Amino acid sequence: MQHRPSRTGDGSWTLLHEVHGEGFHAREGAWTQALLRYARECRVRERAEELSRAGATRFRLLDIGTGLGLNLAAALHELEGLGLVLEVEGFERDVCVPLAALELPPEEGPAGPFVARARAALSSWLDAGAPSGAWIEAHGLRLSMHRGDARAMLSSLPLEPRFDAVFLDPFSPKVEPALWEVDFLREIALRMAPEARLSTYAAGSAVRRALHAAGLQVGLGARVGAKREGTLASHASGLPPLEPRQARRLRRPWP
């Protein structure tokens, strides 16, 4: 068992990796991080409302580092009542992570029903014995999980239809450096809808420069818990601006 349960500051649960010591979520609050850092920073509800008015029936999410399913739950929370199906392409290297998530205590409070649905969908996918990349429909979402090296698998996905949001939530660059390299980020950018947002907890200049080199506008992510800031990226303008010194770093020649 490489993962140890840990209760976070807002009462929600996460896992700690016993080898390198990193948690899947901020200690201040796993649910808070999922909702504020990912679902709301990516404007999931606002974007879904725009899609619904245009006659769309689904919201497409690219979820890099699906982990415990809390980010999926946060997206379900934001889509509640809009009538759109959440369609997710999820990437997780280690199938032991969602399996361990299913052993965590049920979440309480507003997160509870949505976390239960997300984990039930992950359980259905695992119980079906579906091969990597196969689709299932369960518990109000359409889910395809990819196991293994995300770099190889993402490049095999079609360029259309594009994603309406991207949650970039793997382990840190020091633990999983390949998922922060410009070639991988460029593959993500190619599959993002024009108005889609990517959100990540990482705020280092190397990550931001790689996102910029991948062809995306880069902006300032909100502070969540003790984390000073995160990072947003999009093809569209209008992101919260970086500080001038940080913006100048983006313009340096790559690499």
Strand content: 15-25%
Query: Termini, distance in Å?
Result: 38 Å
- Give the SSE order as H and E letters: EEHHEHEHHEEHEHEHEEH
Cα gyration radius (Å): 17 Å
Number of domains: 1
CATH architecture label: 3-Layer(aba) Sandwich
CATH superfamily annotation? Vaccinia Virus protein VP39
E-strand count:
10
Backbone structural class = alpha/beta
Strand order of the largest sheet: 5-6-4-3-7-8-10-9
Taken from the alpha-carbon principal axes, the silhouette is globular
**Model regions low in confidence, pLDDT < 50 over at least 5 residues:** none
Oligomer: single chain
Largest sheet, if any?
A: 8 strands, mixed
CATH fold topology: Rossmann fold
User: Considering DSSP H and I runs of 4 or more, what fraction of the residues is helical?
Assistant: 25-40%
Structural commentary:
The N and C termini lie far apart (38 Å). The protein has nine helices and ten strands. An eight-stranded mixed beta sheet has the order 5-6-4-3-7-8-10-9, with helices on both faces. Strands 1-2 form a two-stranded antiparallel sheet. The model has no long low-confidence stretch (mean pLDDT 92). With 255 residues, the protein is of the alpha/beta class. It has a single domain, classed as 3-Layer(aba) Sandwich (Rossmann fold). Helix 1 packs across helix 3 and helix 3 packs across helix 5.
